[in-house]
Amino acid sequence: GQQVMQIPQYQHVQEGEDFTTYCNSSTTLSNIQWYKQRPGGHPVFLIQLVKSGEVKKQKRLTFQFGEAKKNSSLHITATQTTDVGTYFCAGHAGKSTFGDGTTLTVKP
Amino acid sequence: DAGVIQSPRHEVTEMGQEVTLRCKPISGHNSLFWYRQTMMRGLELLIYFNNNVPIDDSGMPEDRFSAKMPNASFSTLKIQPSEPRDSAVYFCASSLMFDRGRTDTQYFGPGTRLTVL
Fold it and tell me: Environment class of residue B55 by beta-carbon count within 10 Å: exposed (0-12), middle (13-18) or buried (19+)?
C-alpha cells in the first residue's frame, strides 16, 4: 500500500537557524498537504501542492513539490519559538496517508 | 463557524467498557474522517465517509471498532469492549470535498483523549 516517509523525526534548532523537513512517497501523488500540530493541539492545515515542481511560500515557510510528484519539502527560514510543533505531510493517491511528522523544537 | 466539534474531550474508562466518541463536522462538508494518534503509531486514518457513506474502513483496527454516520451532521466511533491499548487521542476531521481525484483541506476537531485503565 501507499507509504509516506518523513524525515527527520526530530529537529532541535537554535532560534534563527533554518529548518527543513522532507516527505517521500512510495507512489506518485495527485497532491500533498502540509499540516502543523502544536503541542497538545490538533493538526492545522498549512498548504496544498498540486502541480509537479510547484513551489509556494508563506512568509518564512517555503513548500516544494517534486517533479515526479513523489516527494515534498517544507523549509522554514530563521526559525522562531512560535514555530515549535510537529509538521506533517499528507500525500493523496486515492486516499490520504500522513507521514509520521517532524517535531521541531526551538531554543531561544 | 464553530469548526469541527468533538465530544467528550476527555474520557477515562475501564477495560471492557463501551466507549462512544462523537463528532459534528463543519456544516456543508461532505467528507468525514476518524483518526487515531499515539506516540508509537503516529496519526492513523481509521475510516472515512463521503456523503455519509463509509468509503474506506481499512484502518479500523479490529471488530471492536465501529463507526457510523447517520446524517451529514453527526458521526460516532464506538469501541466495544475497550482495551488499554486503545488509549490514544482520537481526531475527527471534515472536508468540503474528497474523492479519488482530489482533496480539499481537512479541518480537524480538538480531539478526544481516551484513557482505558
Answer: middle
The CA distance from B91 to A4, in Å, is: 20
Which pLDDT belongs to residue B98? 56
Take residue B27 and report the three cell numbers written for it.
456544516
Q: Is the pLDDT of residue B4 over 60?
A: yes
B105 CA: distance to closest CA in chain A (Å) = 7
**Sign of the C-alpha dihedral computed for residues A46, A50, A52 and A58 taken in this order:** negative
Which DSSP state fits B105?
A: P
Q: For residue B98, what is its C-alpha cell?
A: 474528497
Pairing of strands A31-37, A44-49: antiparallel
Nearest CA in chain B to A33: B105
B56 contacts A92? CB cut-off 8 A? no
Record: contact B106-A33, CB cut-off 8 A: yes
- Output the CA angle A59-A42-A91, nearest 5 degrees: 70
Closest-CA residue to A1 (of A100, A71, A97) = A97
Write out pLDDT tens, residues A39-49.
999 999 999 99
